[in-house]
Amino acid sequence: MLHESAVDLIREAFHYQSRFEGSTMVFKIDFPVTEVSSFPYLMKDLALLAKTGFRVVIVPGAKERINAVLQKYDIVSRYAGNVRITTTSAIPFVEMAAFDAATRFMTGLSADRVDAVIGNFVRARGLGVIQGVDMENTGIVDKIYVNSLKRVLTQSIVPILPCIGWSPVGRPYNVPSDEIALAVSTALNAIKLFIVSANAGVRPGAYQVPPHITLGENGRILRLTPQEAERIIELNAPNSRDDPALRELRLAFQAVKAGVDRAHIIDGREEGAILRELFSNLGAGTMIYADEHEAIRELRHSEIPVILRLMEPLVRKGNLIRRSAEQIQEKKADYVVFEVDGSIHACGALHDWGDGQAEIAALATDPAYTDMGLGRRIVKFLIDRAHREGFCRVFVLTTRTHDWFEFLGFKEVSAESLPERKNYDRSRNSKVFALTLSQYGSDDESHKNTAGIDFADLLISRH
Ligand SMILES: CC(C)(COP(=O)(O)OP(=O)(O)OC[C@H]1O[C@@H](n2cnc3c(N)ncnc32)[C@H](O)[C@@H]1OP(=O)(O)O)[C@@H](O)C(=O)NCCC(=O)NCCS
């Protein structure tokens, strides 16, 4: 018989699949990962994602393979700092190693009958002469051929990008795979960059980390904001260029800063790590996520007319109760706004009614901006705030939006359960929905929403 948790997981997987079908995910995979015994399973998982409608892009790392090939042919590399100088005589061997690494992914996907193509999607230019040193065939990304990539992706073909780029006249350059992964993730507006690594990652003890970082089992860091990731890089600055785990953290940080929703660093030697990271609340690796605090912030006095205007049509429709400017001013600190490109498109508030209970109220999204996740993110932000401020329960009074709150994991409760200080207007007959925050982190199953997502996940979703 299927265990309850397995059923939840299946629900969550279907929910996730339908929500993000057609989204692009980039996988930068270290070469040593291709040599561990679980590599065929990793390829099966990637094939599964590609078959279920995700747009999968693979960027194989090839450093170790290049080292081995150059060594085999007795080619000694020179370095400028920590950058290998790929000489004109070495570039054919570097190409051979890069394509060998890429072929391993092609082989893996072929075993699962997923179409794939190793392509020339990167235009490169040479680093030139730096401080008198000719960097020869060492290059950087000049441009990603986005249209070509999209043509391939829309046909459900997995593009594989070896660490070689070509100049407009066809001169090959050795380009770091990290750079390609970053450029392709941003050029394709990827929702995720997976850094599939062959090391154990940044862990407290081995590295200096700021206090209050969320740790998971085995002392692994569960998640970081870009600010926290940057702080770790700064704290460990002397090693950050050479240390593989710190370089990965830097790559993840840069990707999120450049607009990728989430970057995940996972240990590719662990079987099932990608699926676990995607489909379980705690994941298997370290997630770097764009900080909602950058978009959601407190209401300023001058913006009260703006949110009144935002709420007005919803008040007229009967979704929201009418509030005056003075009433909002009185509780201004309770309000938050969602700013997109310098203007406000959603708002919400968290009111303290005593008895450890807080109300989520005045939630409104500009009609031109609905269904973009603004409402959900404000709720998530307010739940997070309530949790941090020690509330046991958040509740909401709603006349028309009960389905939505139910989907977010709220449960209908009786008006009698409201705190004493909260006046319940019987004439409005609103439904009361609540979420119990004390269950956060417990094994209690009752706080799961219909999609099977633990509401802890709502606070900072791995999705
Ligand atoms: C409820 C509200 C805040 C949602 O805002 P939003 O920014 O569009 O929300 P999200 O983008 O996070 O979620 C949109 C999803 O919820 C669904 N949804 C929106 N309103 C819904 C409702 N009343 N009932 C059920 N589902 C609803 C949408 O269809 C969409 O589904 P999809 O993701 O499958 O496409 C917005 O519709 C609103 O301003 N409503 C009027 C004010 C109100 O009722 N506030 C709550 C009382 S405090």
Task: Write a brief caption for the model.
The chain is α/β, with parallel strands linked by helices and 463 residues long.
Notes on the structure:
The chain has 463 residues and is α/β, with parallel strands linked by helices. It is 34% helix and 24% strand. The strands form 7 sheets. A 7-stranded mixed sheet has the order 2-1-13-16-17-15-14, with helices on both faces. Helix 2 (39-51) packs across helix 4, helix 3 (63-72) packs across helix 4 and helix 6 (177-187) packs parallel to helix 8 (244-257). The model is unreliable at 440-459 (pLDDT under 50). Coenzyme A (COA) binds at residues 314, 319-320, 346, 361, 363-365, 370-376, 396, 398, 400-401, 403-404.
Describe this protein with a few key phrases.
463 residues; alpha/beta; Carbamate kinase; Aminopeptidase; seven-stranded mixed β-sheet; 34% helix; 24% strand; binds coenzyme A
Set out the fold topology:
Layout: H1 4-20, E1 24-29, H2 39-51, E2 55-60, H3 63-72, E3 78-80, E4 83-85, H4 91-111, E5 116-118, E6 122-126, E7 129-130, E8 133-134, E9 139-144, H5 146-154, E10 158-160, E11 164-166, E12 172-174, H6 177-187, E13 192-197, E14 214-215, E15 221-224, H7 226-235, H8 244-257, E16 262-267, H9 273-279, E17 286-289, E18 296-298, H10 304-316, H11 325-330, E19 335-340, E20 343-352, E21 357-365, H12 374-388, E22 393-398, H13 402-407, E23 411-413, E24 431-436, H14 455-459
Parallel strand pairs: 1-2, 1-13, 5-10, 13-16, 15-17, 21-22
Antiparallel strand pairs: 3-4, 6-9, 7-8, 11-12, 14-15, 16-17, 18-19, 19-20, 20-21, 22-24, 23-24
